[in-house]
Amino acid sequence: MKSAIIVLKEQIEHFYLIRRLSLYELKSKNRSNYLGMAWELINPLIQILIYWFVFGSIRQRSDVDIAAGMDPVPFINWLIAGFILWNFFYKSTIDGSKSIYSRLRILSKMNFPMSVIPNFVIFSNFYIHLLMLGITIIIFNMTGYHINIYYLQLFYFIVATFCLLFSISLIMSTLSTIIRDVHMFLNATLRMVLYLSPILWQISILDDPLPTILKANPLYYLIEGYRSALFGTEWFLVAHWEYTLYFWGLIIVLLLIGSRLHVKFRRHFIDYL
Q: What distance in Å separates the CA atoms of residue 120 and residue 197, rounded to the nearest whole number?
C-alpha cells in the first residue's frame, strides 16, 4: 500500500511534466515520416478495413444484436467501437512495457521519478485515441447513431482504461527491464488476446462456461462499456455493477503489485544497462 501511495503521489506532482513529455514523445516517434503523425491514424484505419473485410465476409455483412428490444447494428460500427479501444490498449501496453529499459542510458540524467515514464508513454497514445474517438463519433452520427446521454459514461471508461494501462505498464516495464524476453512474450500474448476479446466476434455465440471465463478479461468490461455509450443502450457500469466491482478490485490488485515491484527495483534499474 505504501508503494502505491508513493507512485500515485509522483503522478500527481509531475502531471504537468507528464503532459509535456507525452507531446514530445508523440512528435519524436513520427519525426522521420513524410506524413508525420497522420500515420497514427492511417494504420488503425487500415486495420479496421482489413478486419471488416475478412470478418465481415465471414458474417456475410450481417448485423449484430447488441441489446434486447433494439434493432441489430451494422457490423462495421460494432467493430469500430471495440477496435479503437483495443488499438489504444495494445499500443500503450507495448510501448509502456519497454518504456524504462529503452531509456536506461538517460536515466541518470533525469530529475524526475521513473514511475512517470510509463505514464507519459500512455499519454502520448491517448492523444491519438481521442482523435480516433472523435472520428468514430462522426461516423456513428452519420450512420444514424446520434450523440446521446449515455456518452457521459465515456469519461468514466477512459479513466478506467488509463488505470488499467498504468497498472499493467508498471508491472511489465519493471519485469521487461530485468528480463528482456518479457517484452517479446507480452507482444505475442497480446496478439492472442485480440482474438480472445469481443472485438472481432460476439462472445454470446459461445456455450457456457466459456463466456464467463472470457469475461474475466478486463478488456471485455471496457469494450462493452464503450459500445454501450456509443450505441446508447444502457449505463453499463450501473447495469453490471458486479462486473464493475470485479474490474476495480482487479485494478487495485494490479496497482499494488506494480507499485511494489517498481519501487523495489527502480534503484537497481541502471544495473541492467
A: 26
Residues in the chain: 273
**Please, what is the angle between helix 2-13 and helix 15-29, to 10°?**
70
**Rounded distance, CA 172 to CA 175, Å?**
5
What is the reported pLDDT for 35?
61
pLDDT for residue 256: 93
Set of cell numbers at residue 165: 494501462
pLDDT tens for 218-245 read 999 999 999 999 998 889 999 999 999 9
Q: Which three cell numbers stand for residue 173?
A: 516495464
Query: 253 exposed, middle or buried (CB, 10 Å; 0-12, 13-18, 19+)?
Result: exposed
Is the sign of the CA dihedral 56, 59, 60, 66 positive or negative?
negative
Question: For residues 39 and 32, what is the distance between their CA atoms, to the nearest angstrom?
Answer: 11
How many other CB atoms are found less than 10 A from the CB of residue 232?
Answer: 17
21-to-15, 112, 220 alpha-carbon distances in Å = 10, 11, 30
Q: Total structural domains in the chain?
A: 1
As a whole number of angstroms, the distance between CA 57 and CA 76 comes to: 11
Q: 132-149 as b/e, with b when 16 or more CB fall inside 10 Å?
A: bbeebbeebeeeebeeee
CA–CA dist 64, 75 (Å, integer):
6
Tens digits of residue pLDDT in 2-51 = 888 888 888 888 888 888 888 887 777 767 666 666 777 778 888 888 88
Q: Which domain holds residue 81?
A: 2-272
